[in-house]
Amino acid sequence: MTDQHRENPIPPSRRSSSTHEAILRAAIELFETSGYSRMTIDAIADRAGASKATIYRWWAGKGPILLEAFLSGVEADIAFPDSGTLREDLVAQVSALAHVLGQTNLGRMAVALLGEAQHDTQLAAAFRSGWLEPRRTVGREVLFRATERGELRADVDLEVVLDGLYGPVYLRLLFGHGPLDRPTIETLVDQVLQGIARQKDATRKCSPAHANPSVETERWAILTDGA
Q: Bridge partners of 197?
């Protein structure tokens, strides 16, 4: 069997837990020492003490293995809170995501894999199905709840909103041209929400960290209390 993907791998619930964990660890270690392009299923099997056939029964290829290793290590850290206020939930979750992807070893691996996915169709498919779509599904649910609470206009395109919130995070992670600290993320969230929030008569001041002295510092409030 060549180092190619296999259709319909066995789901995690049917795998041996000890062998499963050994394979994930081996994949991470090999990625860190050899890089994605030089990794092989043979090498993962050797390091994990597992058979190549077992790996192919469980995963479609090396990309999905690394993606699962990343997700299993960070899932709890990037979960959405549910404070009842959209702005606070978004700031907290985007900040957590930026920290994981930019400041942890697993996150840096995921960013490197994202770059590899631009010329590896199998890895790109794994990212879309294993990372992107589940994250967007949760994001849509969060935005929908906010719409039901009256925080957002009913006519907004939730897909575009998600792109507006998370696109800049990936752009800065990939190119490193600007910070992803909390003040930057607060500015990002506020600017996106200003375009989609229900307008109210109340306004709030820009915080000193975000204020631009050359422009009016009053702006439409982002709802912080349900409507």
A: 152
Question: DSSP character for 201?
Answer: S
Q: Phi and psi at residue 204, in whole multiples of 5°?
A: -135, 155
Q: What angle do CA 58, 109, 47 make, to 5 degrees?
A: 50
Compute the distance between CA of residue 184 and CA of residue 162 in angstroms, rounded to an integer: 17
Q: Work out the pLDDT band at 17, boundaries 50, 70, 90.
A: confident
Task: Name beta bridge partners: 205.
Answer: 218
Task: Report the distance separating Cα 152 and Cα 78, nearest Å.
Answer: 23
Q: Exposed e or buried b for every residue in 173-190, given b needs 16+ CB within 10 A?
A: beeeeeebeeebbbebbb
Distance of CA 155 to the CA centre of its chain: 25
Give backbone dihedrals phi and psi of 79, rounded to 5 degrees, phi first.
Answer: -65, 150
Q: What would the DSSP string read from start to end of 34-89?
A: H-TTT--HHHHHHHHT--HHHHHHH-SSHHHHHHHHHHHHHGGGGPPP--S-HHHH
The CA distances from residue 104 to 30, 70, 80, 89, 149, in Å, are 17, 11, 19, 22, 35
Given a contact cutoff of 8 angstroms between Cβ atoms, the answer to whether 100 and 107 are in contact is yes
User: What stretches of the chain adopt beta strand conformation (E)?
Assistant: 203-205, 218-220
State the pLDDT at residue 210: 44
Q: Pick left, alpha or beta for residue 97 (phi over 0 → left; psi -120 to 50 → alpha; otherwise beta).
A: alpha
- pTM assigned to the model: 0.76
